[in-house]
Write a structure and sequence with these properties.
single chain; 300 residues; alpha/beta; 6-stranded mixed beta sheet; 13 helices; 41% helix; 19% strand; globular; transport; Metal_Ion_Import_ABC; Phosphonate-transporting ATPase; ATP hydrolysis activity; ABC_transporter-like_CS
């Protein structure tokens, strides 16, 4: 990502982000798991996990295959409810959380999107959908706007009710595309992009939704090495701009280089702390066993 793109990432949505950060600080941790246990059968996949993610953190969750990483992510987002313990998101019960625009999710491989006959810009505009509809008209200033400019206010109101994006919405969409360096691809079909480009588009969709929390599930699987480096540069710039990042990643070398904090999981938490301390600890060997030496870039 270029320096200009990084600057834009810092500027885009900064006022809204500062407000959201102040609110989240009042609420407490963005993610708050306490004594969480969950199993699809009688055997727990995640057992007695407690962790909190504060606003502005960059947290990587690592662990061997089958360690419960993706299940932990679903518990964080309220997609699963714990068998025991509590899971809270932005201060609310995660399973009942309905302010979805505050969370951006990037899956490991969005293969379904490859066959969709839609453009990059159309994908990113989906991030604005939570802001459309009648709920958008609850602004107390609406009556004053009608009095001051009845024609344009009526037109804007009609657009909102019918689900049409306003000029402000499209500006946010275009800013999001610029932030991730995909403006030149706005009219290209999503299926004609490389894996790394598609992941950038899905991050742009989250930015268009003005998300405060970005959750990524092994987003660089199948992405070439050069694109991976650029992808992590982008994540770093977004985190510096105030977005909280929770990353599930298999590449421990990338985690060691980019994340500020590591949660090492294998059903239970083996380590939770600063990345440099994780690198020096024995948590990797205890959680991964004999696999550990094959997982870092230095062991390839």
């Amino acid at each position: 990502m270029s320096a200009n793109d990084a600057d834009r990432a810092t500027v885009t949505g900064s006022t809204e982000r500062e407000t959201a950060t102040a609110v989240s600080e009042a609420e407490g941790p963005i993610v708050d798991l306490s004594g969480v246990t969950f199993g699809y059968t009688a055997t727990p996949v995640v057992e007695d996990v407690s962790l909190a993610v504060e606003s502005g953190e960059y947290v990587a969750v690592v662990g061997p295959n089958g360690s419960g990483k993706s299940t932990l992510m679903r518990l964080m987002l309220g997609l699963l409810g714990p068998d025991t313990g509590t899971a809270r998101l932005f201060g609310e019960d995660a399973a009942g959380f309905n302010d979805g625009e505050r969370v951006g999710y990037v899956a490991q491989r969005a293969t379904a999107a490859e066959d969709m006959p839609i453009t990059v810009r159309e994908v990113v505009k989906m991030g604005r959908f939570p802001y459309l509809g009648v709920d958008r008209l609850t602004d107390g200033a609406l009556a004053d706007e009608f009095a001051a400019d009845p024609v344009n206010t009526a037109r804007r109101t009609a657009n909102v009710v019918t689900g049409r994006l306003t000029a402000d919405d499209w500006e946010i969409v275009d800013d999001a595309l610029a932030t991730v360096g995909m403006s030149a691809f706005a009219d290209r079909r999503i299926g004609r992009l490389s894996g790394g480009q598609r992941q950038r588009v899905f991050i742009a969709r989250a930015l268009a939704g003005e998300a405060d929390l970005l959750v990524l599930d092994e987003p660089t699987v199948g992405v070439d090495a050069e694109s991976v480096d650029a992808f992590y540069d982008l994540l770093g710039a977004l985190n510096e701009a105030g977005i909280t990042v929770v990353l599930i990643e298999h590449d421990l070398g990338a985690v060691a280089e980019h994340a500020d904090r590591v949660v090492c999981l294998n059903r239970e938490v083996y380590f939770d702390g600063p990345t440099d301390e994780f690198v020096e600890s024995d948590a990797l060997a205890r959680a991964f066993g004999t696999e550990a030496r094959f997982l870092t870039r230095g062991g390839e």
